[in-house]
Amino acid sequence: MRGVWAEGVSKRFLLRRDRADSVGQLLVRMLPGRRPPPAEPFWALKDVSFRLPLGRSLGIVGNNGSGKSTLLKILTRTMLPTSGQVAVEGRTSALIELGAGFHPDFTGRENIYLNASILGIRRREVDRHLDDIIDFAGIRPFIDTPVKYYSSGMHARLGFSVAIHVEPEILIVDEVLAVGDEAFQQQCMDRIYAMKRQGVSILLVSHDLGSVERLMDEAIWLDRGVMQAQGRPALVVEAYRRSHLEAPVSPDSAPEASPGLLQAAWLEVDGRPVEVVPSGSAVTVVLEWDNPDQPVERHLVLSLRRPDGLAILEISSLRDGRPPLRLGLGRARTRLHIPALQLASGRYEVHAEVLDVQGRRLEEHHPLTEVRVQSLKGAGGLLVLPHEWRAG
């Protein structure tokens, strides 16, 4: 099978905890006949298996230290597994470490050729794509500067640009894109989505759970080297999110989809559905319900979060002292109006919880929908607050 597959992959490291805290301790350990204490085994991966045919995409999620990067290093053959087998069949381009394949004393231009040669790309093919590589990276003024003077973001820009312009059949990307600015991250995700539509296999490690749900065909959740869930991205991401709120989820307990009463949501500006909201605009969140049974009363909690899970705001009809929503039979809509969405540019997720009249949680939707906010002002942080400068 052309593509990527792993079968029973495990990786063990040996950890020694007999660190010498002084020269005296070091000399004692060097005495004849003295044996160092045995090293302790640490399993970074345990029995990981998956198959990714050409043309399909796979997202890998998990906390830091869960084994994601170790798995990618094994797949790209920069590290050997302790046991198990892997195969990567197809023209592959990988970006798993900042500066990998770059020589610090070479210029950006020279490193493009160096990096491409490591990927097995001929010089004349690089010549054909050179301007596109430089323009996508957005570093033309610095392209003839040694990369040892580049920032981490510039490294990521150049490395990603080379990786996508060598026309791979398989693209492997680690979380290194997180060092770039939000606009470049979005540019990269747009290009990854375009490559996916063109039939390129994508293997993506990311903490951007929204992108994994939206772009990937399948997902894996790793925790301490063990696969906890595998399958549809929405179910895997939901299991991963729940693990931060509840007891750990077992490998076979990814939640099943539950339709509930709340079916969908979208945002409107001036009465029109939008995917991109200008910062500061008046926004209406439209929620669509479908009640096939009997009339009920419900409260609603809406929260806005970054893709990494950080909550920006939370609005609750129960805490606001509002009467519960009355839902009759059939379809209905509820609208929440926000006079000014004062957020900095970025991607945000709308999460929802449906409560009964006593405040008990009946439904969870994580996330229910997503929105991109664009600000014409280059604000740092999360908010774009109205302000003015005055002299004196």
> For the record, what CATH class of the largest domain applies?
Alpha Beta
Can you give the helix content as a percent range?
Answer: 10-25%
The overall average pLDDT, rounded, is 84
- Name the CATH homologous superfamily of the largest domain: P-loop containing nucleotide triphosphate hydrolases
Work out the number of β strands: 19
Percent of residues in β-strands: 35-45%
CATH fold name of the largest domain: Rossmann fold
Question: How many helical elements?
Answer: 8
**Oligomeric status of the shown chains?**
single chain
Domain count: the total is 2
Helix/strand order: EHEEHEEHHHEHEHEEHEEEEEEEEEE
Shape by Cα distribution: globular
Structural class: alpha/beta
Q: What is the terminal-to-terminal distance? A: 72 Å
pLDDT < 50 runs, ≥5 residues: 245-259
Q: Please give the largest β-sheet.
A: 6 strands, mixed
Order of strands, widest sheet = 5-6-7-3-8-9
Level-2 CATH architecture of the largest domain: 3-Layer(aba) Sandwich
What is the rounded Rg? 25 Å
Could you please describe the fold and organization of this structure?
The chain has 392 residues and is an alpha/beta fold. It has two domains: 3-17 and 40-243, Rossmann fold; 262-374, abc- transporter (atp binding component) like domain (Coagulation Factor XIII, Chain A, domain 1), CATH 2.70.50.60. The chain is 23% helix and 35% strand. The protein is built from eight helices and 19 strands. A hairpin with a 2-residue loop joins strand 8 (218-223) and strand 9 (226-231). Helix 3 crosses helix 4, helix 3 (108-118) packs across helix 5 and helix 4 (123-137) crosses helix 5 (152-165).
